[in-house]
Design a protein that fits this description.
By secondary structure, the protein is an alpha+beta fold. 56% of the residues lie in helices and 8% in strands. It has nine helices and four strands; from the N terminus they run E-H-E-H-E-E-H-H-H-H-H-H-H. It has a four-stranded mixed sheet, covered by helices on one side. The model has no long low-confidence stretch (mean pLDDT 96). Residues 90-218 form the GST C-terminal domain. InterPro entries: Glutathione-S-Trfase_C-like, Glutathione-S-Trfase_C_sf, Glutathione_S-Trfase, Glutathione_S-Trfase_N, GST_C, Thioredoxin-like_sf. Residues 2-83 form the GST N-terminal domain.
């Protein structure tokens, strides 16, 4: 299948959502790494692609698409003619697929993102912030657990973009937030099975492979930095 796609991305949960989608669809694409620690995503040229100054974004020829969920939906609407990782519009499964995609966009992404902020990057330690957002992340995982106890995948019996959306966030939580997925057996099994997919393995290595031991060491240092700070809740 021909395409003229450039993916602007970095090694984040949202970035992996799009690279996995592209790999699962077997689409050729170019990658431009946007190191978000340097604020390259705030440069004027990139704001012409995504006015919000966030990764990921794509250019498909002259068409810009930003926001990870919108990109995933765009890609399957245009290129997934065989419905490899999506259900046909108008079907009950497509409605379910959209619901779980939005669940990740409005729930897991923002809440786990806040957990990451308070656990790794905040200017002062906040026990309240850490507890609130990690507990909310785990509550959302319990929703996924309930669904996966009754369904092989989130939208039904087929792996879709609904699963791709949540997978990078959930699979990274044991290393980053030290969430024990054994508390969620159906979710844990889902993570393990998805992680075996060759396209998923390729997708999480875009724009470059980040060894798990290096990730674990970085997160350990970030947590230690936060733990050494004054608890802002006491002021």
């Amino acid at each position: 299948m021909s395409s003229d796609i450039t993916l602007y991305t970095w090694t984040t949960g949202n970035g992996f959502k799009v690279s996995i989608t592209l790999e699962e669809l077997g689409l050729p694409y170019k990658t431009e790494a946007i190191n978000i620690s340097t604020n390259r995503q705030k440069e004027e040229w990139f704001l012409n692609i995504n006015p919000n100054g966030r990764i990921p974004a794509i250019l498909d020829g002259g068409q810009r698409v930003f926001e990870s969920g919108a990109i995933m939906t765009y890609l399957v609407d245009k290129y997934d003619t065989e419905r490899k990782i999506s259900y046909a519009p108008g079907t009950p499964e497509h409605v379910e697929q959209t619901c779980w995609l939005m669940f990740q966009m409005s729930g897991i992404g923002p809440m786990q993102g806040q957990a990451n902020h308070f656990r790794f990057f905040a200017g002062a330690r906040s026990d309240y912030g850490i507890k609130r957002y990690i507990e909310e992340t785990k509550r959302l995982y319990s929703v996924l657990e309930s669904r996966l106890q009754e369904s092989t995948y989130l939208a039904g019996e087929k792996f879709t973009i609904a699963d791709i959306a949540s997978y990078p966030w959930v699979s990274g939580a044991p290393v980053s937030l030290q969430i024990d997925l054994s508390e969620f057996p159906a979710l844990n099994k889902w993570v393990e099975e998805i992680g075996k997919r060759p396209a998923v393995q390729k997708g999480v290595a875009v724009p470059h492979f980040w060894p798990q031991e290096d990730m674990a060491e970085l997160f350990k240092k970030c947590r230690a930095n936060i733990d050494a700070m004054t608890n802002s809740d006491q002021h």
